[in-house]
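New to this. Please check this fold:
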Amino acid sequence: MKYNKEISAQVINNISLVESSKKVIEDVEDTLFKKLDEIIECRVEESGLAIDEDKCFSFYDEEDLYFSVADWVSKDKEQVAWYVLAEGPDECGYLTHALGEFSSGSMLRLQFAMNNKELGINKTAYKRRLHKSFSENKALHDLGFVLCDEGMRIELQFNLDKDKVAEEYPELDSCFAPLKNSLDTLFEAHPHFLELVDKMKPANNAATA
């Protein structure tokens, strides 16, 4: 039995409230994440970066939010590197990740990702080089970035303030300060990610295994 008897009994005795809560959560998520998508799209467009035309700002509706820059587009129009919004790794809903209410693993993540095939290196070599390059980059550490659990991406983790979201809903505004601050940090770190991509390329790295 996955849950203990007491928790199961509480759900059974309050099933009407539980079912109603599901609908409320869906409505709150729709409102919050559509606003979040808009904020990210607006701030990315205003960032001054040369954003590639292949981009998507639909984290909630399409489960996809990413953008890249012209410097990271290969000759065959594939993106060598990009930024993405992710969640997890806890198996819980969008709202729980945004508010960080389940566990320390419940969070939103602004991630820097690279395509090891476009870089011309295998997955094992990629992870080894990324770990080495990141461990040597003090600037990224100082800005709060960490290597994700899988060792494939570098990320900045954040949550929204639950009390602030509840206070402002549905006219959400200042509760998005952690998101805006994280985006500003990402833009500040962009020159370091440009350098990192260059270092990861085989031509600029003596080890090609």
